């Protein structure tokens, strides 16, 4: 992320009420460490002192701290704590043992509020990964509820022995599912929830397809044979148009055009998404990070769609990248930074896949019957 993003965002609103937290301007909770402070800054200060944490500013050590994006720079936030009068000597033994009940963070009304809070630091991708797993668990049931035939069979050893070719109905339900789950994913973040309907629609027109490609690319990289692209229900598309197709159903009219378009489509998805996912051994947390980055940084025509929320957005984006970097270093201690860069490069590949998928919806005989919600968002 450009180091100027958060700095530019904070210039939008730097006024802090004199009656607010002396660090970030949020609602004051106490003065126990020497100055009026909110609950978030109180916990942040105590945790920094108790754990002896060291921070680094990515800019000029002059970041303005506002409650909407106070976690964007922890170095400057801590310096502000010291400047306004918070003192390490005021931390008592009972504070070291843990916060009292009166200092417990207020519970959010949302079942999964993913805002920038220090209490959640280090758990951002964990929470998203758990949510992603719950979405994965819905896939087969969603297809069954929409009357899609079982797409694969397993033997007694739980090994897949048979998959069937994807049909038009599989693809129809696939698009409905991805649109629903992409919207649900977006609603985990306050900046997306605050958007008007037309702005959400603008983002989802691209993002839902990227979301779909990440899910299917991850599944394909883990389960599929070479040349096969898997849908969420386990049905497949093969680069060979005739693979898995009964000869009785083949209409030779215009077959050359169909086969070439189909081959190009599947080959491109495999090349752009599945093969890099397999080569890099992309895990669930990295999938969750990719989904989040693509949501926060849409390439749709309305580039200012999150206008007015830049600070909050920058904070969420920064934490996502920080935890993605930490995840890369845990997996590959000797080349964590390099892997981090390789994952970010997948963003452009996924967007190429989105364009390929979008083009295919216009020409393929698999993309023919669509739910009204899909038509309204994807096919306008």
Automatic annotation (TrEMBL):
Annotated Pfam families: Hormone_recep, zf-C4
Localization of this protein: Nucleus
PROSITE patterns: NR_LBD, NUCLEAR_REC_DBD_2
Keyword Zinc among UniProt keywords: yes
Domain of life: Eukaryota
Chief location of this protein within or outside the cell: nucleus
GO MF annotations, alphabetized: DNA-binding transcription factor activity; RNA polymerase II cis-regulatory region sequence-specific DNA binding; zinc ion binding
Name by which UniProt lists this protein: Nuclear receptor domain-containing protein
Species annotation: Caenorhabditis tropicalis
